[in-house]
Amino acid sequence: MWDTQLAEHYLPLPHVPAAKYECLDGKLIMSPYEASQNSYAEGQLIFLAKLAAKQTPFRVYGTVNLLFEPKRWIQPDLTVLNSSPEGALWVDPGLVTLVGEVVSPSSRRRDRIDKPALCAAVGIPYFLEVQVDHEQERASVNLLKLGGKGYRPYASALAGQKFETDLPFPMSFDPAELLDY
To answer: Which burial class, exposed, middle or buried, applies to 27 when counting CB atoms under 10 A from its CB (0-12, 13-18, 19+)?
Structure first.
């Protein structure tokens, strides 16, 4: 059964290609980093979010170790914090305002179902879901806002449209900007 102590001692695993390490109920989940289209979208999304959040108190990070409990953590693609984690290895959900995932073919269920459920259960106000398909020249951005027991749609757009939101900070862009042309 994996926990934060084992992770700090043994991860990353030697002689294994770079991967995301997440843990659900003591089970270590390794996901390979996705092809360039997801990597490009993730980088662009972080860049656009940092520009938008520049005049706000929010801090935009890429992957962090978001800790729910010692045997349960995830590594979101984008994380917006309401204050600095001050060098912490494990980020407390109380610091998190938004979690963003670029949905990967290898982890579609975790990115679209499991991770939003975990984040909603601890009260993270926003979840951002991004999908890109370079071959089809498709991109979508969906911002979900916590309401009731889960997330509800708040703002969305497809490539060629304008994604606009005022929460958690004003942001406006065409999801096509996330495609690597």
So the answer is: exposed
170/180 Cα distance (integer angstroms): 24
Scanning the structure block, which residue is given the tokens 């695993």? 13
pTM of the model as a whole:
0.92
Residue where the block lists tokens 């106000």: 125
The domains of the chain, with CATH numbers, are 35-178 (3.90.1570.10)
Exposed / middle / buried, residue 83 (Cβ in 10 Å: 0-12, 13-18, 19+): exposed
Which 3 state secondary structure label does DSSP give 173?
strand
Can you tell me the distance from the alpha carbon of 159 to that of 167, in angstroms, rounded to the nearest whole number? Answer: 20
Q: What is the per-residue pLDDT across 13-37, written as a single tens digit (0 to 9) for each? A: 888 877 889 999 999 988 876 667 7
CA 90 to chain CA centroid, Å, is 15
Beta strand 27-32 with 19-24: parallel, antiparallel or unpaired? antiparallel
